Amino acid sequence: MYRDNLEVDLKQVLKEIREKFSLQDKKILLAFKQQPHTLTTSLLVETLKMDRSAVVRGLLRLQKYGIITLHKERIKKAKLTGEGIKYAETHLPEKKLLEHLKKIGGEASLDELKNFLDQNTVELNRSLGWLKRKGLIEIVKRNNEPFVRLKNGGSEFLPFFPEETVLKTLWRKGTWVELPLGIKNEEELIKTLKRRNLLVTKEVVEERAELTSFGKELLNYEIPLKITVSNLTPGLIETGKWREVTLKKYDVYAPVAPTAVGRLHPTLSIADKIREIWFDMGFTEAIGPIVELAFWCFDALYQPQDHPARELADTLYIKNIETKKMPPRQLIKKVKETHENGWVTGSSGWRYKWSLSEAKKIVLRTHTTSVSARFLTKIKPPAKIFSIGKVFRRENLDPTHLHEFYQVEGIVVSESVTFRDLLGYLNEYFSRLGFTKTRYRPGYFPYTELSVEPEVYDPERGEWIELGGAGIFRPEVVVPLLGKDIPVLAWGLGLDRLTMRKYNLGDIRFPYFNDIKWLRTYPI
Amino acid sequence: MAVITVNEEDLYNLLGVKLTRKNLIYWLAMQGTPIEREHESELDIEVFPNRPDMLSVEGLARNLRGLLNIERGLPNYTVERGYVQVKVGEGMAEVRPYIAAGVVRDLELTDNFVKQIMQIQEKIHDTHGRKRRKVAIGLHDLDKVEPPFSYIPADPEQYSFTPLHEEREMTLKQILKENEKGRTYGYILEGKEKYPLIIDKMDRVLSFPPIINSTLTEVTEKTTNLFIDVTGTSFRAVNKALNILCTMFAERGATIESVEVIYPKASKWLPNLTPEKVTLNVNYVQKILGVTLSKEEIIKLLLKSRFGVERVTENHIEVLVPAYRTDIMHQIDIVEDLAITYGYDKFQLRIPKIFTSPQRNRQIEKINELRRLMTGMGFIECLTFLQSSSETLTAKMLLPKRKLVEIENPVSLEYNVLRDTLLPSLLEVLKYNKRYEYPQKIFEIGYVIKPDEGAETGVSEEINIAYLISSPETTYTDAKAVLETLSQILNKRWEVKEKNRPPFLEGRTAEILEGEKSIGYLGEIHPQVLENFELTQPVSAAEIYLTKTLTV
Fold first, then answer.
1. Do A449 and B380 touch (CB under 8 A)?
2. pTM of this prediction?
3. Of A393, B53, B139, B197, whose CA is between 20 and 30 Å from B158?
4. For residue B41, what are the domain limits?
């Protein structure tokens, strides 16, 4: 094929070869690099270990680009027989015999030689025939016995066996080897070997490809076998083409943006963990109203109606909403009398006039103790109950105060529990949270007596952290709600400060900002 | 929370022993008056509201002497019969019903003592006195005036005097209007026709309780004899305050002298320092504390706690409670004092074996699974406040004005209502996170509160889930894809129905239906709403009413 502008063409063809040629096509092309730049289809099939059809397709493609020319040709091929292979692997028997004779002094009886060839009489006779014809031995008789003797007493050198060269070449090249092999007197030797039944031959029509001058020019350039791709794609995997490509090397040190992850909120994760601690200790989970009657939030807990905590400055009140369902009148009466004069609780009471309208007010619960108060009217001792929920205080938000935060509430109701057990439960809880050092200081809450302020030691900061309040419910709380005076251990503990400590936060509001970066990356 | 400041040396003088500061701090904490702050020579100490008798260094030292075993039993104070009278005028019941009064003589006023006197007045006013409404105290230089005194309902414009720190005479009405204390505490007298007033024999004004004293009786370093008036709305409370003050002065060596308070129908000699009696059951002590204490040990602890002991029987001890104690209502209050004196740190911890089968709340369990499912879809869980602003819930969301649960005394306008939808808080979260990379996918499961007349507390408390996807490419499809997953995993047959509703964009929003029931909305947030929340990236979102759809 004639080309006008070799430069341009070359570049274009090279580009196409590099990018579009399959690995097989490229292998075929590269096979022409070897002298004498001409190959048959079979030879390619043989050497590249490819399907014949793939080779044919590849050659046609190369021809299309003017890299090779193709023409048909009758070709003679030879293949070793079983025996031929046997001799190709070792030596022809005549050569072996000759060597043996030389070694043992140039003369031997037939029996001896028969032994040497493992009693193979056919092989012996044939070999002797060949050697005799070549004039290398002669048969003489001694004492009427035939002896084989090297002619000329055995020359200095071993004669050359060109047949062996043919056998070994064919053997090395495999089956149906294209002829000629390029050996001297090859045609005659093939004939001889064929006669000896050491090989068979046949004639076939073959496609012969020859590299054009353009092809030769082309092969001066580097043609990489595989193309480089940046990513493995489903297409590459499905078509198996991944075998033909090289994946671009990755910069494993290049910085990357971290995976966008979905995670639970740290404060709520801690709440989950706390929930499991109480379940493990046999507690049942309770929930109760967030918007609560002052009755349950305060009165039922024996908090006097003029208590400062009930003032507008401390408690958030709901506007313009009234309750239509107050607790049973009997219960209200008991609570009222307990406040006023102690009722049957053995207490003097707060000694003031209790007002129903104050108890009807609706507040945002200031503690989850209201949940415990409600449950005290329902349970049958012994009982262990916990509750985790939001509570509300009229606090201005600053780094140490929240107007809305979490509380962990718990009560144990049993005839047999004492102050020591209260401290025991608290200690167990804190140790399960990972605090090994705890201490208990006197505290004050209107609804508990004895009252405790538990503190845990933070070894990292070397300081004690207050974590809420605890105590034994006053008889003035228990008797009206439960109907009898049974010890009720109770606690209302902080959770937000645990989040602060765990994640080393300086601002208690921070978890409520929901800083996405932090929520994505806070440590486990 | 009341915090008082005391001089450390002064405290040691009153204790009669000197401790190391570390040791002192320990004992203060163990008696229930923990240290709040340390200064060079002073300490700020927290006093719980049940112990106004410890709102002075004198009271603290009295209690601590018992704990340290320096002095035991009921403190012994003598009240000498005096001659001063206070006549309570007719009609005081409607004005400010109760007055208690006492006299203390032979005072030696030191700097520290004066500071403590000022401090305890202020602290009692704030706590026990409920900001002077229930109890207000006036201290007077007795030698400047002439008894008998009268506690009378006065016409607001009839009487005038020069109040403390003023330079001119003012009428009572003027004081309420023009004097600083008058403006602060005037509300207590709101709606009263007559105002309470204490005058002497010569009609000179000692005090205009609960507002301010006269300059006439101002206490100075030269004062040696004091007249104390305590007025208020509770007979018991005013007497307790008087007892606390008189015994505090006695702790400094002054002599208490009684005053005859003559009510229209009865008269009393005050202060009355007779201890009250409470019967303590020995078994009860053991039952509560879980410690086996003998009767003798209990008595020893009682005495160290500054109680008196009388009439001991086999199972009972009659306990004498000092007249300055305001907090003993039940024998449990004495048990607590015993425990404090015994030492909270001496109790051996114990966990009882009480078998109870833990019951999980199925709704919470289900919601927790849903939370994990959302994180599995790449959403970040948020935690926001229930308190929100009406502006955020309506105008900013383009939602109509509706009945919200309002807070009467909100922390600020930012938090004046309870939210009835979760989306606004989450849009605020996106606003906070504008500086971070997109896409941002967030969700919250939380309470929404709505007025509900039939409910016990007048509101309904329901749980919603809201999820938001914010990214340059997000569309309705993203919100719907999540919905499909939820619907499938929750085993629901949720369908959507085209319906326009703020805060979503018309034609790109739908109602979520479970059968006939509306259980939420989804769609693309309206650009006007995005602008209102200062957002610049598109947001697709949904809010689902979980309480309405999750049956447990």
1. no
2. 0.79
3. B139
4. 2-67
